[in-house]
Amino acid sequence: MMATKATRSEGKLCGLCNTLINEYQYRAHVAKCGVSSGDDNDNKAETVLKVCGLCERQVKDLADHYRTCTGVTTTTNRNHEYQQKSRNTPIYEHPSVSVSNASKAKECIICSEMIAENVYANHVDRCISNSSIRSKQLTKTKECVICSEMIAENIYANHVNRCTSYLSMRSKNLKGTKECIICSKMIPEDDHAHHINKCLAQSSMKQTKQKTTKECIICFQEIAESDYAAHVDACISRSSSSTKPKPISRKSEVSCFTCSSPVSSSKTSSHTVPCRSHHIYCLKCLENSMNEYIQPNTAPVCHSTLCDYEFSRYDVACIPLEADTIKRLSNCVKITRRPQCPICSFYIDFNTMDDFQKHVASCNLENFIPCEYCHCPYNVHRLNDHSQQCRSAPRSQQLQALIDFILPRTKYLATAQQIRVFIAHRKKTRAAIEPHAIIDALAELDGAFPFDIPTLDCGICMETCIYDDIFVFGCEENHKLCYVCFENSCASKMNNNETLTCGMCNYQLQEGEIKQLRVPADRKRQYLDYQIQKTFSAYVGGSQGIIRCPNGSCKWVAEASNPNDRFQVKCPMCGYEFCSLCNRQYHFRTTCQQIPEITERWFFWCDTERGRYWQARAQQDAQFRTQLDDYERQKAANIQRNQELAERYNELLADEQYKSANCRLCPHCQRVVQHLGGCDLMVCGQNYHGGDEQSGCGKGFRFSQALPYVSATNGGPQQVSNHVPEPEQQKLVVHHDIQCDTCHDQVQGIRFDCVHCASLIFCEKCEQRSTLEHSNEIRNQKKQQHVFQLITQSLNQNDS
């Protein structure tokens, strides 16, 4: 049974005659069978490929191939089990020889197979001839002109055709695409920006993953980031603890970099400088070297000629010398490199080594979370309160908070403008805007700043300053001063009782320019009040009139080119809008004298006359019943508006009565003036001998010769009702070319014009609902209620 099983498993199928042949007779059979087949069918063999039974390759001349075939399969796995067996069992092994017997088998020096000793020499000869044939076959290749691959000559033409067709198809597919600058892939234009962001994020993640170790700042060893904090703590504790010096062993002996004498690597007898080469000095040579820098007060370096590593204050503090020597040597340090805290990874300023160790001992960032607005880390218990305040702050203030946080924590000293420019560049490149990322990026620059910062020279001190530290005045020459000279100029002029002007010309400073001063808020308010007072005094002393804001808490004043003109004034300081002549709420298309009468008529119309008018209209024509019903429904909504109008009317009535009894009109500008005592001589806008300055034309007159003020109010609704004729007595009035702003129809009947709006007109049908909505809108803006003028006759042109 064993022999039968072996015979079946070792049989092979001839590729020429399809006969199952014993494995040990297979080569002789194939050689003989292949010769006869090749002689009879020469023409057929040239065109038909046959499969080799040993290596399963497709060949034309199978007989010649079998003579040189090694039986190595390259293209198929059909007989995988047999192939594994054939590799472990020598092809030419005699049945009586066992390969497993190590004493009767040898390893082939060509193919490394175990071969029986009796067939070893023949096997090696065949391996050598096969390797030479293969090397010749490999040389019969050509490089593709499209893809640059090495291709066999017999399939070269077909391969080039396939490459050409693929290249043409790819060029068609690449239309509408752009090449990624990160990974060089062709990306559709619609997804190009998103792909770039994704590539940048992946590249930054790869960079962070690559940084798995950090150099210890104490012992300069490469430590895994996860163990870095614990390792530095242990190093600091070892360096600060006072231990007895250990005996020097020969293994730890090194030579001094200066005198070459053997020294111990312990800190009690030598010191290692944290330069790139980590030079070691004995304490005597180190002290002598440091004294050479103390006397001329030059910056200390590792070696005066061989190593230019410059010592920082932290490096000096680590040197095991006397305290007085360390103190004097620290004064010679010129470089501004700070040491890095192993806990928070920020760079720390310190005066003594104890200060740095205290910071490391107390540093803890576990409960700190960065703010999502300014990116500064805050304690988790304070983060909520800070975020609420930071959310409403302007972006410039958020950016300034980040700059103020980074400034004292960089490795090298940097200016606020440099950090501002660096952050702006990171925003353009979409890099992380986070304190640690910014500080690490600046540390990699080794104190050199890679961007140019534009500068200007101050016109007074001639110092070169960055753009943000230069103020440009609004004068014709656009003089430029640094903020220090700007503030010094203002302080000098105020001390000399002069009007605040440009530091280099007589250009008078405006309010907005004074607000740009970089001084405390109370000092800035002092400059503003002083400038207003000086401006007002200059106007009062002149011949022209002035205009002053009627708001009692405001001190704004301006010069009037023509004090008799009426125009709208908006105070630039408090925002109050008023008429230049009467100081009341500004009114369009009406004179100052008409406002009291118009206000009185509007109040009585809203209070009583509207209801009476629509009742009479409805009795005359049933189609006006709708307006009457609408009036009845909105009575409750009109109550608040009528109360506000009543308060305004009562104040107006009292004011008119007081002016009728005590005031007169200026004969030059028709402003209302009052005589408070003294002689009969008056100056419009101020007391005759100065003081109590108000809006006025500034011209003089005698109070007894001025015309008395006459009130335009009547004092009751009975007189006002006479102005609106009864509906049955009035004809249909059509206001040509005038449209209602609500229904957009031509206005018929009574026309309602808002005197406090540039253009707002309603017809009598839309008046009640539209004026009520307008009143609510004005109330929400916290302004005084507007007044509407009732026009019952068609006008050829409006009053201006």
TrEMBL record:
The keyword Zinc applies. It catalyses: [E2 ubiquitin-conjugating enzyme]-S-ubiquitinyl-L-cysteine + [acceptor protein]-L-lysine = [E2 ubiquitin-conjugating enzyme]-L-cysteine + [acceptor protein]-N(6)-ubiquitinyl-L-lysine. GO terms for biological process: protein ubiquitination. The keyword Glycosyltransferase does not apply. Residues 454-722 form the RING-type domain. Keywords: Metal-binding, Repeat, Transferase, Ubl conjugation pathway, Zinc, Zinc-finger. GO terms for molecular function: ubiquitin protein ligase activity; zinc ion binding. This is RBR-type E3 ubiquitin transferase. It comes from Rotaria magnacalcarata.
